Amino acid sequence: MIKYPLASSTWGDAELKAIQKVIDSNAFTMGENVRRFEDNFAKFTGSKYCVMTNSGSSANLLVLAGLFYHKTKRLQRGDEVIVPAVSWSTSYYPLYQYGLKLKFVDVDINTLNYGLDKLASAVTAKTKVILAVNLLGNPNDFEAIKAIIEGKDIILIEDNCESMGAEFKNKQAGTFGLSGTYSSFFSHHISTMEGGMIVTDDEELYHILLSLRAHGWTRDLPKVNKVTGTKSDRYFDESFKFVLPGYNVRPTEMVGAVGIEQLKKLPDFIRVRRQNARKFQKLFGDNPHFAIQQETGRSSWFGFSLIIREQSPLCRNEVVDRLGCDGIECRPIVTGNFTKNKVIEWFDYEISGDLKNAELLDKNGFFVGNHHFDIKEQLIFLKETLDKYIKRTCI
Predict the structure, then answer these.
(1) Does domain 267-393 match CATH 3.40.50.150?
(2) Residues 75-85: tens digit of each pLDDT
């Protein structure tokens, strides 16, 4: 029996009614609901443009693909992209799929985002892109990153799929670079079944993304656009005209309709998640056996990480087994040290310096869930369960 689940549904009557309204309309493919959600999400993030996709992974793919067709920020195969050693797999895959060279940089063991000194030392004249991943709700220090790349021809993009609603210096995470990606998968801050979003202030990239999202055709582009110039007024002429080697990663109208309702609830969801975080910090902030993630800016607290301290006698596998037996779900901290995965054999990559901290959290780390409702009882239960295990282990 699960007593402390990793994730929970954020849906209510409003979402079910929104789905039913789409069913009644008999219009299921991407349309007005998706456009409304995109407009609302752009306003929420303070961005000029938003493009919705069928997943956060697809959002990452489109952004990377878009940079190959951008007139002024164009990438070429073999270009170097700096990435953190800890992230989700589909943060990396588009880079491999487009023939880019990945340079892995260690994370800071406290924030779980880039180790800033290591990031600075990894930047060279070959660096074309820095991918900043905001891990478990926690934004990077974008002030420091901006200083590192100032005066250099380096594109900053953000994978903000785990950190919707996080803020740094009163600005939404996901909006510090050329583009930012988000996910609305079931376990994330809002849920649209499956779904992803891209935000940008760059009009050319926006138009490229509109084309790439749906087959690489011109149909979804505005009449005057930065991909083809000016479209024909004849719909027939533009209906099957292809200009970019795109994909079909469109969302459905149901996804858009649910997103509209979920976005209304997001501020309250994040407020409660932050309240839960304060309780978690109070319970575990000075624990002699576990280190917890330190907040940069204002985290939206996707989940709560715990890393067994190096001097502790505790064993991560035993801790995880104990939690599972007591009905507490947990997972590794994203991929741990991603370079240990067998898939890395396919990549063109190098490692900048060492990955000591990524290795430590790979060996000793795990995270438990956060929710949009009060989980004080679950957090106390987690603490009691771990205390009992520690007492037996340390006798």
Answers:
(1) no
(2) 999 999 999 99
